[in-house]
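Tutorial handout. Part one gives the primary structure; part two gives the three-dimensional structure as tokens.
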Amino acid sequence: NTPAGGSKQTCYMGYDVARLTERVFDPTAKTWIRERKEAAAYAAVCDSYGRVIECRSLFAQRGEMLTPDDVLRLLYETLHECKTAMKEYYNEDFSRLVIYRDGDIKSTDLKMMELGLQKLFEAVEDKYSKLIIDVVAVIKTGIERVFDDDMTNPNVGNYVILNDTRALVCTSDIKKKSNYLSAKPLKLRYVLSKSLDNVDRRAPMEKIVHEFIDLTRLDWVSLAHMPKLALPLILVQQIGKLTLKDVSVPKDVPYIPL
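Part two.
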């Protein structure tokens, strides 16, 4: 089988940040008086065949906001797990990590991520001969619509490259449904690319799109209908839901990909 994106040396990480809220009860006033907020990051990593390498939750050390140090903590062990898995599964050198962020990335989050990646590369520069980290925002809402030439809904997998960093991707299969519905494409935004040797190694936008589409086909639900999101983001959503219900998810959660 052909790996997603055509390379065994790439791993894919779904990533989301949420704020957990907890209302605090004041026994003296006998009322709920405030909410405590805590930032949490959820991540799931799979290889290019959809085999899950690890899942993890991370809570901010400073409570309400994730910091560059939190990014370093989240990614340092992840790189090690990817490197180990590539050798064990395929006897290949791990060289690239693609991070899919659920939702757009604001300027403050981008700055935090850039500083975190800078610290990460400083920490691992003697452990890798080659390492590239690409960050892609997956935006699920927007005003954009996509149609075929005859003004009908496009097939799943159709996409439009807008420029070097943006693309619209159709992952919802409504071709055979009502003509009164229109396809709502995902927007992929290629936010950031960092390489260990500081050389510009940005991938073509078309490659970023094809990798994402390939990963939507690795979840079991794709046998019945195409999921809207890539596999690592589907796993991240499930981790978030379970965590909110106080269900802990093991790092090495078993998953058999297609």
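Part three, for discussion. The first strand starts at residue 10 and ends at 26. The chain has a mean pLDDT of 81.
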